[in-house]
Amino acid sequence: MLHNINLLPWREQLRRRHKQRFFGLVIAVLSIAVLSQWFAGHYLFSQEQLQQSRLTYLNDYISQLDQRINQLKGLDQDHKALLTRLQVVEQLQQLRNTTTDFMNALPSFIPHGVYVDKINMSGQQIQISGISETTSRLASMLDRLESSPLLSNIEMHSIVHGQVRFSKKFQTFNVSFDFQSPSQAVGVQ
User: Fold this and answer.
1) Range with the largest mean pLDDT of 5-9, 35-39, 154-158, 180-184
2) Between β-strands 125-132 and 168-179, what pairing exists: parallel, antiparallel or unpaired?
3) Buried b (16+ CB within 10 A) or exposed e, 97-131
4) Under a CB-based contact definition with an 8 Å cutoff, are residues 109 and 141 in contact?
């Protein structure tokens, strides 16, 4: 029979201490690893929540900006509509002034002895019909019309001799031309 005698008991104790220390270190390392993993997971989760809240804020802000852009587009369309209306009003104002300017300029076109019966205005196109005592006065009127810088496209449509009016013989005439008022000429330049 063989007996197992330990002649060096301090080695056994040293081995036991090494085992205990090893298991203690393993448990400590595992505990540290689990805790660091848990802290890292918790940190990453909080960062994800923070990033998600930032993303939500940015999406809300973007939707607000989209609404503002849509409002600005509406305002831009309203602005364009107002500009269009303003241009129409300006054109009407110029047409209103055209009549006044033409009536102010008319005496310079018509010599003594020529009488206007009818004036028809359609935009810038004007037709005049009337009577004249003599053909030379009609020629003088036509010369004045052609020399005016305010008139263009002058056409004498008819001259009829010997028309009796007021118990006297006159020449009737019909003339048309385009009139550009001085206010329109200034606005064009």
Assistant:
1) 35-39
2) antiparallel
3) ebeebbeeeeeebbbeebeeeeeeeeebebebbbb
4) yes
Beta bridge partners of 118: 129
- What is each CA distance from 92 to 125, 142, 161, 172, in whole angstroms? 16, 30, 39, 33
Alpha helices of the chain — where are they, by DSSP H?
9-109, 135-147, 182-188
Domain ranges in the chain are 89-180
Q: Radius of gyration (Cα) for the chain, nearest Å?
A: 53
- Provide the residue count of the chain: 189
Phi-psi group of 167: left, alpha or beta (phi > 0 → left; psi -120 to 50 → alpha; rest → beta)? left
Q: What are phi and psi of 34, to 5 degrees?
A: -65, -45
Query: Hey, CA dihedral for 88, 93, 98, 99, is it positive or negative?
Result: positive
CATH class as words, domain 89-180: alpha beta
For 105-138, the pLDDT digits (tens) are 888 888 888 999 999 988 788 899 999 988 888 8
Query: 74: helix, coil or strand?
Result: helix
